[in-house]
Design a protein that fits this description.
Elements (H helix, E strand, L loop, with lengths): L2 H12 L3 H7 L1 H4 L22 H22 L13 H6 L22 H11 L2 E5 L4 E4 L5 H8 L4 E2 L10 H7 L6 H4 L2 H4 E7 L5 E3 L13 H5 L8 E8 L1 E2 L3 E8 L3 H13 L6 E5 L1 H11 L8 E8 L1 H16 L4 E6 L2 H12 L1 H5 L7 E4 L2 E2 L5 H13 L4 E7 L4 E8 L4 H20 L15 H8 L1 H14 L18
Antiparallel strand pairs: 1-2, 2-6, 3-7, 4-5, 4-6, 8-10, 8-11, 9-10, 9-14, 12-15, 13-15, 14-15
Helix pairs in contact: 1-2, 1-4, 2-4, 12-17, 17-18, 19-20
């Protein structure tokens, strides 16, 4: 998020003259593009900073960002074209939102950043600022990864319950409103952030809420910022809700003759009242990839994985109830594990699923879908998508957070073959439109960026997009915050 802001702030404060240096560097700022993803900052944590310099620097970080943002606010209002200016799109003859279109509305731009910048960000943006054990919350900076945070919290018997990709940082997770496999039990990022500190485009530093667990005081600015993908402000501090590490857990796995049977069991489990912490679905192609990658011999059929938590007795009771449900829906080979090492080995299968796919085509790239539908439509969505995927010449893998209706497809394609790319885009678009026809969404957790802007009008309606545009214009009139992302460029009001 906002590498230009980070860079100007860090360098200007290191020279002890923040505002003047930020102004002087403002022309340099415009060379950088914003990018938003769950991996918006490097995931590898450097050694924990132990010098007073880092503590001093991190406390000044919001001010540095404010000075940088303020300097950009004084620039010419022609930094970026209006979001509803159609000229650059017309020249490329891109039809926005047409059902037959497989083009992106706006092509993203990737700019390399220096290792020096990455090292500075690691040093200043990754230390835990305050842990309140009795309140079960923690105040962190946006560059810390969720895995590193949980390593820090483990000795206190606490953990942060969202688990997206291994490299995800807290800042990126806020930007995309991500979730993960535990969302079925603990909710998404919007449910687990208590408050934020955000630098706005004009340089104002906003605290979105107090540290209270609930509040009815004014507009919910926290949820406005979460999922805004860096288009409304730069997050500099996050207060997170924590959970107790469960006393006991059981991991179970079972097989099915068809993917619809597996999806039906996921739905039946949720309707039974069982509070599973994870319900993950893998199709036979994904299991085949896991076998290749890990030299395993798992049955290459649709597979469900569960996790149950609580007391030892409660976890076992949940396991037995689900085992009965599985047997009623053609399920077989129900196995479960309680030993820590055995559980780790089972979940390793799921956690490394994406990387396992590349063992089937090491030189290919992956296009990953991220649709989500109301739970009652999940089985139909997966069945219809699977028919289309199996008929494609490309290798397509299905994996789902089946407990909350979120469905991913990994489509492997040769980036050097245009017909491969277009087929991958066609399949992705087929699944998006199928999900939208079932009152679903084009993105359950990965975000919009530029690639999914063309679906938003069909999903939300032009009135919702115009409202978003008004909010964007009010908070960022010069369009300096991640320009060209999230809101389709044809939206005017």
């Amino acid at each position: 998020m906002g590498f230009s802001f980070w860079l100007a702030g860090l360098r200007s404060f290191s020279k002890k003259s923040a505002f003047s240096n930020a102004l002087r560097n403002s022309s340099y700022l415009k060379k950088f593009q914003f990018s938003t993803s769950q991996n918006n900052l490097p995931s590898t944590i450097a050694e924990k900073c132990k010098t007073q310099f880092f503590s001093w620097s991190s406390s000044l970080l919001p001010l540095a960002l404010a000075a940088s943002a303020g300097s950009l606010a004084f620039q010419s209002q022609n930094i970026q074209p209006s979001l509803c200016e159609p000229s650059n799109l017309d020249s490329r003859k891109v039809s926005i939102g047409r059902k037959s279109s497989t083009e992106f509305v706006v092509k993203g731009i990737h700019k390399e950043v220096t290792q020096e910048l990455i090292d500075e960000l690691k040093a200043i943006c990754q230390r835990v600022k305050a842990l309140h054990i009795e309140d079960m919350d923690v105040v962190v900076e946006p560059g810390i990864g969720w895995m590193e945070l949980n390593e820090y919290l483990e000795p206190y018997g606490l953990f942060f319950p969202l688990d997206p990709g291994p490299g995800a940082t807290i800042g990126g997770m806020c930007a995309t409103r991500c979730s993960g496999s535990l969302a079925v039990r603990y909710g998404t990022m919007r449910d687990n952030v208590i408050s934020l500190k955000v630098v706005l485009a004009n340089g104002d530093i906003v605290k979105t809420a107090s540290r209270a667990r609930k509040s009815a005081a004014g507009y919910d600015l926290t949820r406005l910022m979460i999922g805004s993908e860096g288009t409304l402000g730069v997050v500099t501090e996050v207060t997170l809700r924590l959970q107790k590490i469960p006393e006991h857990s059981v991991v179970a796995m079972c097989n099915f003759p068809t993917i619809k049977d597996a999806a039906d069991v996921a739905i039946a489990t949720m309707l039974s009242g069982i509070q599973a912490s994870r319900v993950e679905l893998l199709d036979e192609v994904q299991v085949r990839a896991i076998n290749i990658a890990n030299a395993k011999n798992l049955p290459e059929v649709p597979t469900l994985m569960f996790e149950f938590i609580g007391t030892e007795a409660y976890s076992r009771e949940q396991t037995q109830i689900v085992q009965r449900i599985v047997s009623e829906h053609n399920g077989t080979d129900f196995v479960f594990a309680e030993d820590p090492q055995a559980k780790k080995e089972l979940w390793k299968i799921r956690k490394e699923a994406l990387w396992a796919c590349f063992t089937m085509e090491p030189n290919f790239e992956a296009m990953i879908s991220d649709v989500c539908v109301p739970l009652s439509h999940l089985a139909e969505l997966i069945s219809r998508s699977k028919q289309e995927l199996d008929a494609s010449p490309l290798i397509c893998v299905v994996i789902a957070h089946a407990g909350d209706g979120n469905f991913h497809t990994v489509i492997l394609f040769d980036p050097n073959q245009e017909e491969h790319r277009r087929e991958a885009e066609r399949l992705n678009q087929f699944m998006v439109y199928t999900a939208l026809s079932m009152e679903g969404t084009c993105t359950g957790e990965h975000g919009v960026g530029t690639g999914k802007m063309k679906y938003l009008e069909k999903e939300l309606g032009i009135e919702a997009l115009q409202t978003m545009k008004r909010i964007k214009t009010a908070l960022d009139p010069n369009n300096i915050m991640n320009p060209g992302k999230l809101i389709p460029p044809h939206v005017c009001f």
